[in-house]
C-alpha cells in the first residue's frame, strides 16, 4: 500500500514521478481575471425569500456558491475535520487493510481519481465512505480512529440535511413543490469523500483532480482552510477562497438533466501546492439504484423539448465514468440529445 498512497511516500523529493506529469496544454492556470472573480456567498440565516432568490441566481450563474449561516453545528464540523486528520496521520499498518484499487467497493482508501482517467494519475489520496439510506449502516467503515464511525455518520446526516434544504429552496424558486427532490432521486446514500492532497514538489506539472462535473444530484463540500478548488467560469478558472465556517455547494449532472438544463453542472478541478497538505470533505447526494434519470415533465414543453436522454442511474454512472483531459466539458458527451442539421426539431 505504501508505494501507492501519496501521503505515505517520502516528502523530500524534488520532482514528481513521471506518471503524474500532465501535458502542459491541459494545465492552464487561473488568470488574474479569474482570480478576481469570487463565488457568491449566501447567508442562509436571512429571510427565506431572499435566500431562495440568492441560491437560484448564484446557481444559474455559476453552478457553485458558498453558504454561511447554514445551521450545521460548528462542533460537528470541528469534529469532522479532526477525525479526518487523525485517520491520515495513523500508521500505515492501521490503514493497510482498507486500501483498495477495486472501484466497485463502496468503502475504501485509494489514491488518484475515482473516474477512469485514460492513464493519467492525480495528486490525491481519498478515503471514501458510503452512508446508506435509510439504514445508516457503518459496519463496513474503518474502526480506527475510534470515533470515526460516529463522527462521520453524524456529519453525513447533517450534510444531507443541508443539501435537502437547498434543494427545497431551489424548488420554491422554480415553482415546484418543496419535496420535489425527495424520494429515490436523493434517497440512495450519501457518499463521503475525505480528500487529502499532500504537498506536491511540482504543483505546476500536475493536478489534484482533473476538470470534471460531479455525477450525482448535488454536492456539499467542506473546503478546509487552504485554497485548492478551482471552478470554470467564462473560459477561465475561479480560484475559490474558502470563507470561514462555510460550505461550498455545487449542482451535479443529475440535477442538470432532471431540470432539462435550467440548472447547470459546472466543471471544476483541484490544484496542488508545495507548502502544506490540504484536506476537504465532499458529501454527494446519490439516488437509489433503481432510479431513472431524465428530464422531468415540468421542465419539458413544445418550446422546450428534452435536451438529455433518459437512462437508469447505472447507465448514467457508466456514461460519466471517464474523464478526458482533452475535452473542455468532458462529461456532457453521451447524455445530451444532439440536434441534427435539418429542418424542424428532429433529434436523435
From TrEMBL:
Keywords: Iron, Metal-binding, Oxidoreductase. InterPro entries: DIOX_N, IPNS-like_FE2OG_OXY, IPNS-like_sf, Oxoglu/Fe-dep_dioxygenase_dom, Plant_2OG-oxidoreductases. The keyword Ribonucleoprotein does not apply. Residues 184-287 form the Fe2OG dioxygenase domain. One of its GO terms (molecular function) is metal ion binding. Transmembrane segments: none annotated. Belongs to the iron/ascorbate-dependent oxidoreductase family. This is Fe2OG dioxygenase domain-containing protein.
Amino acid at each position: 500500500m505504501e508505494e501507492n498512497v501519496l501521503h505515505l511516500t517520502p516528502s523530500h523529493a524534488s520532482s514528481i514521478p513521471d506518471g503524474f506529469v500532465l501535458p502542459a496544454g491541459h494545465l492552464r492556470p487561473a488568470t488574474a481575471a479569474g482570480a478576481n472573480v469570487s463565488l457568491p456567498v449566501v447567508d442562509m440565516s436571512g429571510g427565506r425569500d431572499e435566500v431562495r432568490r440568492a441560491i437560484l441566481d448564484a446557481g444559474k450563474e455559476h453552478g457553485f456558491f458558498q453558504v454561511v449561516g447554514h445551521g450545521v453545528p460548528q462542533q460537528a464540523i470541528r469534529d469532522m475535520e479532526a477525525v479526518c486528520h487523525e485517520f491520515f496521520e495513523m500508521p500505515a499498518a492501521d490503514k493497510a487493510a482498507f486500501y483498495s484499487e477495486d472501484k466497485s467497493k463502496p468503502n475504501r482508501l485509494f489514491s488518484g481519481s475515482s473516474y477512469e482517467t485514460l492513464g493519467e494519475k492525480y495528486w490525491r489520496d481519498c478515503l471514501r465512505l458510503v452512508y446508506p439510506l435509510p439504514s445508516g449502516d457503518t459496519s463496513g467503515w474503518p474502526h480506527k480512529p475510534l470515533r470515526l464511525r460516529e463522527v462521520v455518520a453524524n456529519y453525513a446526516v447533517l450534510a444531507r440535511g443541508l443539501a435537502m434544504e437547498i434543494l427545497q429552496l431551489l424548488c420554491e424558486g422554480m415553482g415546484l413543490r418543496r419535496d420535489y427532490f425527495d424520494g429515490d432521486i436523493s434517497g440512495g446514500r450519501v457518499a463521503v469523500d475525505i480528500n487529502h492532497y499532500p504537498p506536491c514538489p511540482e504543483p505546476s506539472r500536475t493536478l489534484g483532480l482533473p476538470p470534471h462535473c460531479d455525477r450525482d444530484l448535488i454536492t456539499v463540500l467542506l473546503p478546509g482552510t487552504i485554497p485548492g478548488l478551482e471552478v470554470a467560469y467564462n473560459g477561465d478558472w475561479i480560484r475559490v477562497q474558502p470563507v470561514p465556517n462555510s460550505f461550498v455547494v455545487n449542482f451535479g449532472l443529475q440535477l442538470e438533466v432532471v431540470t432539462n438544463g435550467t440548472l447547470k453542472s459546472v466543471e471544476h478541478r483541484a490544484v496542488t501546492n508545495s507548502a502544506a497538505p490540504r484536506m476537504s470533505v465532499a458529501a454527494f447526494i446519490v439516488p437509489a439504484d433503481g432510479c431513472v434519470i431524465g428530464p422531468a415533465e415540468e421542465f419539458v414543453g413544445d418550446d422546450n423539448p428534452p435536451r438529455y436522454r433518459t437512462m437508469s442511474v447505472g447507465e448514467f454512472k457508466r456514461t460519466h465514468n471517464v474523464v478526458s483531459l482533452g475535452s473542455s466539458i468532458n462529461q456532457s458527451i453521451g447524455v445530451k440529445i444532439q440536434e441534427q442539421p435539418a429542418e424542424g426539431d428532429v433529434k436523435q
